[in-house]
Amino acid sequence: MHRSSFIFSLSVWLLITGSFAQENNVPSPAFALTPPMGWNSWNKFGCNVSDGMIRGTADAMIKSGMKDAGYQYVNVDDCWQVSRDANGNIVADPQRFPYGMKALADYVHSLGLKFGLYSDAGSKTCAGRPGGLGHEYQDALTYAAWGVDYLKYDWCNTTTQDAKASYANIRAALNAAGRPIVLSICEWGTAKPWLWGKDVGGNLWRTTGDITDKWSGQTKWPDGSCCSNGMLAILDLQVGLESYAGPGHWNDPDMLEVGNGGMTDAEYRSHFSLWSLLAAPLIAGNDLRAMRPQIQAILTNKEVIAVDQDVLGHEGTRVNKSGDLEVWARQLSDGSRAVVLLNRGSAEQEISTHWQDLGYPDYLSASVRDLWAHKDLGKFTGKFTARVAPHGVVMVKIRPSDSSLKQ
Ligand code: GLA
Fold first, then answer.
1. Which atom belonging to ligand 1 lies closest to the Cα atom of 126?
2. Could you confirm whether 154 is annotated as catalytic?
3. What does the DSSP assignment read for 37-66?
4. Whole-prediction pTM value?
5. For residues 54 and 48, what is the distance between their CA atoms, to the nearest angstrom?
6. Which atom of ligand 1 is nearest to the CA of 125?
7. Dihedrals φ, ψ of 184, to 5°?
8. Which residues line the pocket of ligand 1, CB cutoff 6 A?
9. CB contact at 8 A, 67 and 113
């Protein structure tokens, strides 16, 4: 070979292998550019998962209008797996999933939806099923062959494992398997995954322990250890983490409890509004096959979902707190602000948001739209005030008027 063509071929080879090597460590920038939306079995069904229930849920995702509203992923959480075979391959429960996981994924895909599975970075999952430790590359190949689009990777039974290295390992394995798979880091915030989750190719990371279906406070686990968290307890733990989120890499305050029965509809509206303000993954956790219309209306409110899915990917923050009364605000890509006026107290209260809190000058005139009433409320200058029901929110979009911007 002529020397120059040898050097040319060598550089092409280096370029190709170099980019492969990079691909193994870095997530594709096209993953999860807005917070993932879907459904997961755990919050409602726990270990009671089955082929029929998951297919029924996928059907319901279409019939209920959730797919139209943007929900994509149908995710099976813990307990789908029972053992490993003689070659170390993970085995799905043959009683509960008699057609296997590939057939189930194919069914979900046939509806235009995506399919997610759960495993664990340790030797066993949290429910004691086989974990992924030592089988990362083998499992990634299996998941890719089954058509898995989303992997939630838990942190039980990890003894002395290093969290960052463990998640980097499973991401490299998924990338090597050659299928784009969203990686959901479920490490509960213990090793501050917001500091390294993006670097290891995580697309979302849990910031806290598990959510529980109640408004506030915590609940001890059955073994007496502490604790799962009510919605407000989780909300408070998000303060200060905002800057770590962005397109492709999101803080995950855990899956939604909307519709599971432990909160009132007003409280569920607050939960859904705040998660959208936080640019949180919207992973429903209720029985989609048997939703009351009120719950369906919450989960499919397109104006609130549009806030969650705003392409700027700017997570909202608490901009004001006075006792039980809080203002949360989020910058949107069109220059407007999404604002949640939150009343944590048990009596109706008036709450104001001042333009200064939103980064707007006082003189600015802005139109205000109520995202739950689906109503334009008119133009306001300097501040906006509303009466907010107990445990409720008023969620608005505040958009500077064009004439105001020209001032
Ligand atoms: C942990 C996770 C939950 C769920 C269960 C399954 O508690 O944080 O979200 O996946 O395990 O066992």
1. 12
2. yes
3. EEEESHHHHTT---HHHHHHHHHHHHHTTH
4. 0.93
5. 11
6. 12
7. -100, 110
8. 42, 77-78, 118, 125-127, 154, 186, 210
9. yes
Q: Label residue 30 by pLDDT band (50, 70, 90).
A: confident
Cα–ligand 1 centroid distance for 213 (angstroms): 14
Tokens of 169: 């390992």
Q: Convert the pLDDT of each residue in 88-129 to its tens digit.
A: 999 999 999 999 999 999 999 999 999 999 999 999 999 999
Q: Which tokens hold the place of 191?
A: 């090793």
- What is the CA(47)–ligand 1 centre distance, in A? 10
Counting from 1 in the atom list of ligand 1, the atom nearest the Cα of 255 is: 9
Q: Looking up tokens 């390992």, which residue turns up?
A: 169
Average pLDDT on 170-190 reads 97
Q: Which residue among 154, 213, 252, 308 is the active-site one? A: 154
Active site annotation includes 120 = no
Residue 31, pLDDT score: 86
Q: How far is the CA of 289 from the centre of ligand 1 (A)?
A: 22
Using DSSP bridges, classify how beta strands 393-400 and 337-343 pair: parallel, antiparallel or unpaired. Answer: antiparallel
pLDDT at 339: 99
The Å distance, Cα 90 to ligand 1 centre, comes to 19
Catalytic residue among 210, 252, 254, 310: 210
Closest residue (by CA) to atom 4 of ligand 1? Answer: 42
The string of pLDDT tens digits covering residues 257-288 is: 999 999 999 999 999 999 999 999 999 999 99
Q: At what angle do helices 3-25 and 163-177 cross, to 10 degrees?
A: 120
The values of phi and psi at residue 72, to 5°, are -125, -45
- In ligand 1, which atom is closest to the CA atom of 210? 8
Asked if pLDDT for residue 402 goes beyond 90, the answer is no
Write down the pLDDT at residue 405: 56
DSSP 26: S
Q: Token pair of 141, please?
A: 């190949």
